[in-house]
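Materials and Methods. Structural model of Phosphatidylglycerol--prolipoprotein diacylglyceryl transferase. The 272-residue sequence of Phosphatidylglycerol--prolipoprotein diacylglyceryl transferase from Rhizobium etli was retrieved and submitted for structure prediction as follows.
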Amino acid sequence: MPFPNIDPIAFSIGPLAIHWYGLAYVAGILLGWAYARRLAANDSLWPGNASPMTKTQLDDFIVWAALGVVLGGRLGYIFFYDLSAVLHDPIRAVEIWNGGMSFHGGLTGTTIAMIIFARRNAIPIWSLFDIVAAVVPFGLFFGRIANFINGELWGRLTDVPWAVVFPTGGPFARHPSQLYEAGLEGIVLLLVLAALVYGMRALKSPGFITGVFVCGYALSRIFLEFFREPDAQLGYLLGTNWLTMGMILSSPMILLGLWAILRARRQAAPQL
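The predicted structure was written out as tokens:
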């Protein structure tokens, strides 16, 4: 099927062009913030039936989160995927439309922001991790939709009926892997976490939701890398025709997520 050829520029205000990619980040952050406020307002979801943070604190944190996502995401992409090109042409570092952002970098940047913010505001760090983890799929969903609109990060060659011929991918039918990621990393992961939050009251075990999110994202990303074309400047790694940078960066996350889950279970055990 042909690419829908959606203009990457949503609208313009004079000389200022507003891209769908930027709007996707705004939508993800704002919807995540609204959902986080609902979670924070529901005392029954938290240990001791008392929310560990206020809506005002969450309102203040949104700025920290945005900086962590944008700065961490861009720096992560540069260091993990595009360092040689940026060293050759430093102005490329600020061209976010040229390569985009790295989830793993954004996760690192946001984690640093959370640690600093939690310490400054006397918020239990694992509870802040949990509330952010519960809402991150909003950003993942909108980010992948924006990747599709931009015709970037497309999938490997395929002959499935829903394959797409992307304008920058040559005259070849490819997996619309951005949509696969939007569905699995965004919608499915959001629903799983919501079921744990509301159905199992998982926020009462600080760190559990964080662990499930980290494991869930890592497993989803590794699986979907088999459908996604690796970045051209890196290709497949270690002489293989399957191993990608996304797989390498995601693999340690599985162990980290399992550790967080087990830690949360151990901490909650005396309360059972």
